[in-house]
Amino acid sequence: MPVSRETEARLDRYVDLLLEWQAKTNLVAPSTLPSLWTRHIADSLQLLTIAPSAKTWADLGSGGGFPGVVLACALAGTPGAMVHLVERNAKKAAFLREALRVTNSPGQVHLSDIGDSVDRITGPVDCVTARAVAPLHQLIGFAEPLVRKGAKALFLKGQDVEAELTEATKYWNIKPQLHSSRTGGHGWIVELDNIERRRQPATAHGTSA
Ligand SMILES: C[S@@+](CC[C@H](N)C(=O)[O-])C[C@H]1O[C@@H](n2cnc3c(N)ncnc32)[C@H](O)[C@@H]1O
C-alpha cells in the first residue's frame, strides 16, 4: 500500500511504540509480530482505497489500533480528519491515546463499551469500521445508528464471511458488497451503505417467522 513519506514516518513511530508496549501489554497476537506491516498495517490502510474521500471515521473495538490508529496516521495531513477510537479496555485505551500523541494524528479515544458510545459520537461520521471484535450480526447492530445517519460500514472479516452474512441476514436487511482483501490470506471487507432491522427474524428457510 503506497503512502506518503510523512505517513510512513508516523507509522514507523506507531510501530516502535506498539513494540515497546507489547512487552508489557498484549496488544496484538505475538505470532503476528513478524508480519506486522502486512497483517495489520496494510490490512488497515486498504480501507482508504474503498472510501478515499472519507475524513471522519469511527473504529469500534480498536484494541492495539487496527485499523483506527493506522487510518489516523494516514489522514494526519487531511484538513478536518478525525478518527474516533472506541475501546473498553483501559490499558489499550491508554496505549491508543499515546499512539495518537506520538504520531500527532487526529483522533479521539472513547474508553467505553461500543453500545454506550456510538450514540454519543457527535458530528457526521463518514465510515464506521471494526476488525476482530464481534460476529457480523452484532457489529451491524453496533453500527446501525451511524449508518442510519449516512456512514458507510467497512468490516474486516476472515474466511467465514459467508456464514456470518447468512446469520446476519436473519436479523438485518442488507445489501453487502464484498471486497477481497488486498493483503492476501482469506480476508474480506464487508461494505454496507444501508442497514434495516428485519421486523421479524428470518427462519432457516429464509422466510419471516
Ligand atoms: C481481538 S481485539 C481486536 C483489536 C483490533 N480491532 C485489531 O483488529 O487488532 C478486540 C478488541 O475489541 C475490544 N472490544 C470488544 N468488544 C467491545 C465492546 N463491546 N466495547 C468496546 N470494546 C470492545 C476488546 O477490548 C479488544 O481490545
TrEMBL record:
Keywords: Cytoplasm, Methyltransferase, rRNA processing, S-adenosyl-L-methionine, Transferase. S-adenosyl-L-methionine binds at residues 61, 66, 131. The keyword Ligase does not apply. Its main location: cytoplasm. Its EC number is 2.1.1.170. InterPro entries: rRNA_ssu_MeTfrase_G (IPR003682), SAM-dependent_MTases_sf (IPR029063). It holds the Pfam family GidB. It is found in: Cytoplasm. GO terms for molecular function: rRNA (guanine-N7-)-methyltransferase activity. GO terms for cellular component: cytosol. Signal peptide: none annotated. It comes from the Bacteria. The keyword Lipoprotein does not apply. It catalyses: guanosine(527) in 16S rRNA + S-adenosyl-L-methionine = N(7)-methylguanosine(527) in 16S rRNA + S-adenosyl-L-homocysteine. Belongs to the methyltransferase superfamily. RNA methyltransferase RsmG family. Specifically methylates the N7 position of guanine in position 527 of 16S rRNA. This is Ribosomal RNA small subunit methyltransferase G. It comes from Bradyrhizobium sediminis.
